[in-house]
Amino acid sequence: MTAYNDGGWHVPEEELRAYAGGGLTPPALWSADTHLAACARCRAVLAEVADPVALDAGWERLDAELDAPRAGWCEGLLVRLGVPDHVARLLTATPVLRGSWLGAVAAVLAMTVTAVLASGSPDGTPTLFLALAPLLPLAGVALSYGPALDPAYEIAVVAPLHGFRLLMIRTVAVLAVGIGLNGLATLALPGYGLRALAWLLPALALTGGGLALTPRLGPVVAPSVVGGAWIGLLLVAEAVRESGDGPLVPFTAVGQGVCAVVAVVAAGVLFAVRDRFDRSRFVH
């Protein structure tokens, strides 16, 4: 600091120039910061010696930093794991990866498991759980894509990502979380053994089928049709079941094989129509 004729202590002009140019180093930088906060005269001198272009650019950077949303712990973790910033932001903006959706799914699974345990399924198969579990990943993927359901849709459209790649990124994330929650619920049914895992192949088949139909039917109608078909299939299987103590057809060995084939075929169709996710009206 230096003294002027008025007896007050002020930052020297050369230090103000260095401060404006970003060249002032501690401890002089700390002293200048503290003094400028309380000294109108030094702030006026700083405004005179500062480069207006550099000053405007600095304010723009500050505005951008203040306006930018703070990264959450999940986004920060993804970035540290090597995921690009824009991909991490799109992933964490996925509606079904938020606490409210995850809590709702966990509650539904918990109530379903409780109902299965309380009822003591006579056929040795947790039919209610197996019927519901495949629908949750399908619903999760449906809620993660398209303007009608995704609040981050505008960001997704302008992101430097192929529409199909964005879809796959979110689908993998949603499936990982959904299958993880279903898997935890399955652990609560140890008495059923491997039969409690009979939801996995139907879940992949339903999700793949819904995605494959999305370019033609849209992100709302396609999963709705697939989900309705699944419910209808279960009702028919229940109606034609010859013995009341046997599993429904989709949860038998034959039914599981059919689900596996459907999942593979749906994946092939999805790959074949991948370019339509950039041309479809719900993407652009």
What do these coordinates show?
The chain is mainly α and 284 residues long. The chain is built from 15 helices and two strands. A two-stranded antiparallel ribbon has the order 1-2. Helix 9 runs parallel beside helix 12 (200-217) and helix 12 runs parallel beside helix 14 (253-272). The longest helix has 25 residues, at 163-187.
Separation of the first and last Cα atoms: 59 Å
Strand content: under 5%
Shape category: elongated
Sketch the major β-sheet. 2 strands, antiparallel
Per DSSP, the total helix count is 15
> How much helical structure, as a percent, in the residues?
55-70%
Q: Largest sheet, order of strands side by side?
A: 1-2
Topology as a string of helices (H) and strands (E): EEHHHHHHHHHHHHHHH
Uncertain spans, ≥5 residues at pLDDT below 50? 1-7
Which class best fits the helix and strand makeup?
Answer: mainly alpha
Can you count the beta strands? Answer: 2
What is Rg? 29 Å
> What average pLDDT do the residues reach?
78
